[in-house]
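Objective 1b of the project was to move from sequence-level analysis to a structural picture of ligand recognition. The entry below was assembled by the postdoctoral researcher (A.K.) and checked by the PI before modelling. It contains the amino acid sequence of the target and the SMILES of the bound compound, zinc ion.
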Amino acid sequence: MIKALTRLSTRKRFLVNSAARHFATLQKALTERSCFFCHARTHEALDICAGCQLDLPWNTNACRICSEPMPSQLSGQVTCGKCLTSQPAFDRCLTAFTFEFPVRQAIHQLKYSQQCYWSRPLGACLHRVIEQQSPLYRPEVLIPVPMERAKKRIRKINQSEEIAKRVGKHMRIPVDGKIVRKIRATSAQSTLNKRERRQNLRGSFEVIGKPAYQHVAIVDDVITTGATAETLARLLKQAGIEEVSIWCIARTPTPAHK
Ligand SMILES: [Zn+2]
Ligand SMILES: [Zn+2]
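Corresponding predicted holo structure:
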């Protein structure tokens, strides 16, 4: 009788353990995803494996105002020479990465090949950096850098809008793409120097109506000289907005000769 009871209890334990094992396997299969960069299996929240997270070109040493990458020996809250001589129209700029491999390739795929899925890891990384570096500054609305209508028809997506939607979802902040409009087509900024970029952007954006916000964040994919951010921030401040943050995926170091 005792033997029979022991056998029964062992069998019961076996069944319970086996069910638990199956449940754990199922749970693992459901939570495990592929790393966006190397495709290894991962449980990491960003959907980027721990190894790739370490290798990504995080913009950790940057000017606290314009996020210009700074020499690594200058750590902490530093302000670059440019911001010390003339403060930009925006209040602060945060960028997750420097514009290098593999972030450069990921942004290109999002921008030129309509591979929208890249907005997910890039948006999640930007969100993480915002929470780490600027948790107290919470804008009321996110404004993606607008794209001219004809260009959007060709490209199909506005990459800034896709990134803003992801970040907005993480932070529960609405995205409003109708506050600023691009009214004039401009030459590709990447082909121009700093002075030409400013001239190129003159009169190319307009603020619609009188926005009822005090603090907004402009969201963009790449910031180079900051001419677009500067133009938009100035327009928004002229329209009565008090505080303008810039949230961007990547920053290119300003070339010395431009
Ligand atoms: Zn990886
Ligand atoms: Zn600066």
